[in-house]
Amino acid sequence: MKFLVDTHAHTIASTHAYSTVHDYFSVAKEKGIKLFAITDHGPDMADAPHFWHFVNMRVLPRIVNGVGMLRGIEANIKNEQGDIDFFGDYLQQLDIVLAGFHEPVFPPSTKEIHTQALINCIESGHVDIITHPGNPAYPIDINSVAKAAAKHNVALEINNSSFLTSRKGSLNNCTDIANAVKKAGGLLVMGSDSHVAFSLGEFEKSIEVIETVEFPIERLLNRSPEALLSFLSTRGHSLSDEYSILME
């Protein structure tokens, strides 16, 4: 099965990334990707775009040459309370909200604190997807997080970049997460975590994890644009009618 939906990509607005929105649309068209999300790092990251970057995403087109793009953010989880660095009515203007741990904002602490922070973030209702929860720098109680995510209709990410260029040592954790989410009845999503457009939609290592645990495809959000858009609607996002072209 070819997965043509990617929920996690960074542009030059996050200055440790190297591609523009235009680049991503071009690569997506070349690869046959139907829907992707631009999710630059939240403003508390050292080299992240300003808060206004996310407010002004309304100027970006959602459909270009038949390819859909979601306006999003990879927010930073800031503390044990699960707070993130984007807030209020501004969250409702985005199509998708990701959040995860990043060392410059939330230095690694204890397993108990990491677990509580993720559960509080999940329970807040502000975040649709938790990014790279298998990061070995942030050990968590995997079963507790998986159960909370399933209960609150939040997806956990299997991050392909974690197996290639960052967060080395994530494989065992990600396999355990996929198994725990499968058991809890929750949702998974694969994210390329692209920092250059060429890797958009690349899920080879994540697919290996999905296949190893025999995760149900009907609970994998990448399976179709309809699956992801339906999930985001259940999460309370008022999605543009422009995306209807992706259902045809």
List its traits.
single chain; 248 residues; alpha/beta; eight-stranded mixed beta sheet; 29% helix
Structural commentary:
This protein has a single domain, classed as Alpha-Beta Barrel (TIM Barrel), CATH 3.20.20. Helix content is 29%, strand content 15%. It has seven helices and eight strands. Strands 1, 2, 3, 4, 5, 6, 7 and 8 form an eight-stranded mixed beta sheet that branches. A hairpin with a 2-residue loop joins strand 3 and strand 4. Helix 3 packs parallel to helix 4. The longest helix is centred in the middle third of the chain and has 14 residues.
CATH topology: TIM Barrel
Q: What is the CATH level 1 assignment?
A: Alpha Beta
Helix-strand makeup class: alpha/beta
Question: How many E-type strands?
Answer: 8
Which CATH architecture would you pick? Alpha-Beta Barrel
Order of helices and strands: EHEHEEEHEHEHEHH
Instruction: Compute the number of structural domains.
Output: 1
Task: State the helicity in percent bands.
Answer: 25-40%
- Using only C-alpha atoms, the radius of gyration works out to 16 Å
**Biggest sheet, in brief?**
8 strands, mixed
Shape: globular
Tally of helical runs: 7
Summarize, please.
By secondary structure, the protein is of the alpha/beta class. The protein contains seven helices and eight strands. Strands 1, 2, 3, 4, 5, 6, 7 and 8 form an eight-stranded mixed sheet that branches.
